[in-house]
Design brief:
The chain is elongated, with a radius of gyration of 35 Å. With about 475 residues, the protein is α/β, with parallel strands linked by helices. The longest helix is centred in the last third of the chain and has 27 residues. About 45% of the residues lie in helices and about 15% in strands.
């Protein structure tokens, strides 16, 4: 017995250790061998996930003796706090950090401008852009007033200190914040904003070879010639969390979540509620890194509610039309905040996605309306005896009418409501007074119940005595 317990304990211990090692492998960044060039890919919104990934990646490469770290950057901007963590890690790194804005078509906008300028060396692929780091409002205009001056002053001082530390064009850096200036790869290289234009990673390393950079540990000469290049992507957990900050993914998750909750309310199912709640949680995790406009959020939820009501009430398509308008408007302004915080990303729900989802809801509501019209044009359903249920038919309440419920009439179960709006409990006798489409309109039956058949073996009722003459 003791041996069996020991073996069981050993097996459990091994399983726990294996699970722990797997978790560590998923969470920790890839460690490169000594002398290697570590490539960290930073795409999408600058959020805390990206900050943790880049900070830990730089620290890991530094501790393993890597020759250099290359940050492949493509971002519309993001969180001020996350950007501060990343630039701090770059400025404090003792290993050369090279920022490469790539591939073609990529940009280092808003917070991305700060990240690019904070690298020891910075390069851009042809067809990329950098800049436009000025805080703006929902109309793309500069924030005015005291608040605007405050946030702009902070951003200007931050980017000025970074540009001075790295020996870059301070005037252009401040104009990127003060006037939302941007530049192409060629312009940025000519202005001294970045160190050059490089179409490939090999070109980046070739250009960086032999350059001297200043680190907190002193001057360091970049030596990457012939060194192994190691990609260190985000682990699966980080990738999933970072994916949630994609504006389109967060939007779809929110719509699916609201649809699941409404389905649970209209037609209770455990699956709908669980799926809806889970999607809403994930959506709000993503919204935490995005410039969310609450008005857009409310409009989308209201539109979805009108879609659900269209399936329950006769509106001849008016509820569906109102829902469609609210949905499209909400999706269009979902990421257009009334006042943007410094360095917030310029993001929006993709127009093709709005068109596709709005079209899908329009087709669905059209199908619902068509089915309702066909049903209402049909003759009233017949009872089990082959005759239409006539007015005056007696019945009984099955589901309490409060004031809508169900009744049993003519051998069938009907959706029903009371004619005068009163509430009737279960098993209350009623009589049919009319039909409203497929809804029976009933009233309380106050007539005495008809005598039923006498059960077998029951005594006959006593005969009253008669008077004797």
């Amino acid at each position: 017995m003791i041996d069996r317990l020991s073996r069981s304990t050993l097996a459990i211990t091994r399983a726990v250790l294996a699970a722990g090692l797997l978790t560590i492998a998923l969470v920790l960044p890839v460690r490169a061998g000594s002398g290697a060039v570590v490539v960290l890919t930073a795409t999408g919104v600058v959020d805390n996930v990206m900050a943790d990934y880049l900070r830990d990646g730089i620290a890991s490469a530094q501790s393993s003796g890597a020759s250099a770290v290359v940050i492949k950057l493509d971002t519309p901007g993001g969180s001020l706090d996350a950007m501060t963590q990343i630039t701090k890690a770059e400025l404090e790194a003792t290993v050369p950090v090279i920022v490469w804005v790539a591939p073609a078509g990529a940009w280092a906008a808003s917070a991305g401008t700060f990240i690019a300028l904070a690298g020891h060396l910075a390069y851009m692929a042809p067809g990329t852009s950098i800049g436009a780091a000025s805080p703006v409002d929902s109309n793309g205009q500069d924030i005015t007033g005291t608040e605007g001056d405050k946030v702009r002053s902070i951003a200007v001082s931050t980017i000025t200190s970074i540009a001075q530390e790295r020996g870059r064009n301070v005037d252009w850096a401040t104009s990127a914040v003060a006037q939302a200036t941007s530049a192409t790869a060629t312009q940025a290289a000519a202005l001294g904003v970045v160190d050059g234009v490089a179409a490939t990673l090999d070109a980046v390393l070739a250009s960086a070879q032999g350059k001297q950079v200043t680190t907190p540990a002193g001057p360091v000469t970049v030596d990457v010639a012939g060194k192994a290049v190691v990609d260190a992507p985000m682990n699966p957990v980080m990738s999933f969390l970072h994916l949630l900050s994609d504006p389109n993914i967060a939007f779809v998750l929110f719509v699916v979540g609201i649809a699941g909750i409404l389905l649970e309310l209209v037609h209770p199912t455990i699956l709908g509620g669980i799926l809806g709640g889970f999607c809403l949680i994930l959506a709000f995790i993503g919204f935490g890194s995005l410039p969310l406009n609450v008005a857009g959020l409310v409009l989308i939820a209201f539109g979805m509610l009108l879609f659900a009501l269209e399936t329950q009430f006769t509106s001849h398509g008016l509820l569906a039309l109102g829902g469609l308008i609210a949905f499209v408007l909400g999706a269009s302004i979902l990421y257009a905040p009334p006042t943007a915080a410094p360095l917030e990303p310029s993001v929006a729900v993709a127009t093709p996605l709005i068109v596709v989802m709005a079209g899908a809801f329009a087709l669905l509501m059209g199908a619902v309306a068509y089915a309702a019209i066909r049903i209402r044009r049909m003759a009233a359903p017949k009872g089990t005896v082959g005759q239409q249920v006539p007015v005056g038919t007696a019945g009984v309440v099955q589901m309490p009418l409060a004031p809508v419920g169900t009744v049993f009439l003519g051998g069938e179960t009907w959706s029903a409501r009371t004619a005068d709006g009163r509430e009737l409990d279960r098993d209350t006798p009623v009589r049919l007074v009319g039909l409203d489409g497929l809804v029976a309109v009933v009233a309380l039956d106050t007539s005495p119940p008809a005598p039923g058949p006498r059960p077998t073996g029951a005594p006959a009722p006593a005969t009253p005595p008669t008077a004797q003459s």
